[in-house]
């Protein structure tokens, strides 16, 4: 089954409070291993954190949407938050974290190919897909940031 991922990049405007000190966003503990891994990967690929990262206030896990939506994740530049639906396998949740941070921090758009981290759809029922292909998917993701 494929579930559409919300497009963070459709939120076109952002508000930046220049008085905000540079501080790390608050990250829910269930997501922090993935966010830490993403930051380490950014560093090992020679990427500096962008202003968008420092503007981010919070990355939080959601389990049930009261509005009945089925989105996997969403960035909100007004609230300065990223939400990640966290009741999938570890590999899928990690992929959602990388996907949403790709939109939010590096302003990546969706890629036209399927099965990539920045694809518009994510395979939520093929549990082994992201685990088996992670190294390859990750290199394509970081290549797309540097392009
Ligand atoms: Zn997306």
Description:
The chain is of the alpha/beta class and 147 residues long. It has one domain: 3-Layer(aba) Sandwich (Collagenase (Catalytic Domain)), CATH 3.40.390. 37% of the residues lie in helices and 15% in strands. It is built from four helices and six strands. It has helices at 32-44, 51-55, 90-106, 127-146, and strands at 2-4, 26-27, 58-62, 73-76, 81-85, 121-123. A four-stranded mixed β-sheet has the order 2-3-5-4, covered by helices on one side. It is globular, with a radius of gyration of 14 Å. The relative contact order is 0.20. Residues 7-15 have low confidence and may be disordered. The structure holds zinc ion. The site of zinc ion has 6 residues, from helix 3.
Q: What's the helix and strand layout?
A:
Blueprint: E1 2-4, E2 26-27, H1 32-44, H2 51-55, E3 58-62, E4 73-76, E5 81-85, H3 90-106, E6 121-123, H4 127-146
Parallel strand pairs: 2-3, 3-5
Antiparallel strand pairs: 1-6, 4-5
Helix pairs in contact: 3-4
Bound molecules: zinc ion.
């Amino acid at each position: 089954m494929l579930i559409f991922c919300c497009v963070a990049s459709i939120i076109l405007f952002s508000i930046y409070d220049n008085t905000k000190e540079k501080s790390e966003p608050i990250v829910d503990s269930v997501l922090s291993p993935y966010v830490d891994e993403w930051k380490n990967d950014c560093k090992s690929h020679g990427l500096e954190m962008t202003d968008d990262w420092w503007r981010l206030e919070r990355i939080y896990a959601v389990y049930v949407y009261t509005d009945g939506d089925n989105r996997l994740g969403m960035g909100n530049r007004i609230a300065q938050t990223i939400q990640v639906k966290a009741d999938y396998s570890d590999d899928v949740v990690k992929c959602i974290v990388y996907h949403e941070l790709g939109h939010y921090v590096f302003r990546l758009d969706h890629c036209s190919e399927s099965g990539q981290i920045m694809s518009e759809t994510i395979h939520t029922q093929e549990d082994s897909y992201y685990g088996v292909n992670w190294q390859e998917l990750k290199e394509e993701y970081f290549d797309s940031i540097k392009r």
